[in-house]
Amino acid sequence: MTSRVAVVIVTYNSAVTLPTCLAALPDGVEIVVADNNSRDDTCDIAKNTPGVRVVQLGRNAGYAAGINAGIAALGEFDHVLVVNPDARVRPGAIPLLVSAFDNPRVGIAAPRLENPDGSLQPSLRRPPTVGRAWAEALLGGNRVGRWGTLGELITSPERYAVPGPAAWATGGVLMLSAAVCKEMGPWDESFLLYGEETDFALRASKRGFLTWYAPDAVVEHDGGESGTNPMLWALLTVNRVRVVRRHNGFLPFLGYYAAVVLGEAIRAASGRPTARAALTALLRPSRRLKVLPQ
Q1: Which residues, by range, are in coiled-coil regions (predicted)?
Q2: Are residues 143 and 265 in the same domain?
């Protein structure tokens, strides 16, 4: 592999998962750990791993801030793999992702994500639209994802067997070209967590860059807590709406917002704590998370 490949790992209290993440990376890549003020042994683990540099943000600034700090600390590179510490890159995945950039229109390459048991972890999305928001609100995102193009989250296993473009992909593991990094500039740090990869991919698409799915490049990913943690689910839900407001205009935003509010209200009525937290954040902007817990 002749491309200069760098890796940025964004950490926060990641001592449990970081060692296996680092061990899975191949030799010959520049590795920067961008740490969001961890209080455990994350930084010591990174500093004691040969070939790894640590950039300390000094506060829990979020995922986009970590990506920006990590990329800013890199030397010259052709491609940079942005990865969560709870991911393990399978052998050969990095060269396979690099090969996606043989198409000069590709700015972002996404691997196949698998759960630790080897099952598929759906990670591809269609563009967020008002119709899809209403379908997901009334029927559930996982269900509508299997019906044609009705859902935003693509859950059909057949789609994950073939390469091709997507509107955006889960930000836990993405490879970026140097060109897209230079053209797009920093990721939007105001999203804190969730939505930043959507915003970046949609902005990039408007500049002519594709997000490309490479199914032969496989990464094992533990997955996050957003589905069970009320604070994180509320942040994710609010950021979904923010992305639509930014990229689709005011009238589509109103329809999308109404659909998301209804969907969270239905699930809150059934006793789901995550939905109650999201509904509160949607209806009461003053209760929205502005700064991550330090």
Answers
A1: none
A2: no
Q: Which amino acid is at 46?
A: A
Q: Which residues pair with 53 in a beta bridge?
A: 32
Instruction: Let me know the angle formed at the C-alpha of 240 by 238 and 137, rounded to the nearest 5 degrees.
Output: 95
Residue with tokens 């300390």: 56
pLDDT band at 1 (very low <50, low <70, confident <90, very high): low
Question: How many C-beta atoms lie closer than 10 Å to residue 272's C-beta?
Answer: 16
Q: Count of domains in the chain?
A: 2
Distance linking the first and last C-alpha atoms of the chain: 40
Q: Are residues 189 and 276 in the same domain?
A: no
Domain membership flag for residue 292? no
Note whether 111 and 246 are same-domain residues.
Answer: no
What pTM did the predictor assign? Answer: 0.94
Rounded-to-10 torsion of CA 81, 86, 90, 93? -20
Per-residue model confidence as pLDDT tens digits over 176-233? 999 999 999 999 999 999 999 999 999 999 999 999 999 999 999 997 777 789 999 9
User: In terms of residue numbers, what domain contains 257?
Assistant: 230-287
Q: Are 163 and 140 within 8 A, CB to CB? A: no
Distance, CA of 241 to CA of 243 (rounded, Å): 5
CA neighbor of 279 nearest in space, from 123, 143, 137, 144: 137
Q: How long a stretch of residues is the chain?
A: 294
Q: How far apart are the C-alpha atoms of 21 and 174, rounded to whole Å?
A: 15
The dihedral built from the CA positions of residue 199, 163, 170 and 52, taken in this order, carries a sign that is: negative
Cα maximum dimension of the chain:
55
106 and 237 belong to one structural domain: no
| CA nearest to 89, candidates 66, 56, 112 | 112
